[in-house]
Amino acid sequence: MLSKEQRRAALKLTRRETRKLLWELRQSHDISLEDLSVLSCIPEWQLDYLICGRGQINGGYLAQLAAFYDKRIKIELIDYPPTGDKLKA
User: How far apart are CA 22 and CA 8, in angstroms?
Assistant: First the structure.
């Protein structure tokens, strides 16, 4: 069973990786957060939370963003550490 610290570390890593992907997509399309909000029909504050890695990751909003960027979501379970990060024991 995972400890509380391990669960927090896993969530933090997932948020960080999701935030990085969303940030890179937005930058590559040269679109402001406000414009992305209007075009994707996602509240600006929710986009800010997703792109800054705060709060819960909302699968529905991720699906909307994927559709907006003409992408699909692929969920893959991979072995730790993916980039040298280790969960605290």
Answer: 21
| Helical (H) or strand (E) element with 70 | none
Nearest to 9 by CA among 80, 70, 72, 77: 80
| Residue 18, domain CATH | 1.10.260
- Structural domain that includes position 46: 4-68
Residue ranges for the chain with pLDDT beneath 70: 81-89
What element of type H or E holds 13?
Answer: helix 4-28
Q: How many domains does the chain have?
A: 1
For residue 71, what is the DSSP state? -
Q: Indicate the pTM of the whole model.
A: 0.77
Within a domain: residue 87? no
DSSP alpha helix (H) spans, 33-83? 33-40, 44-52, 59-68
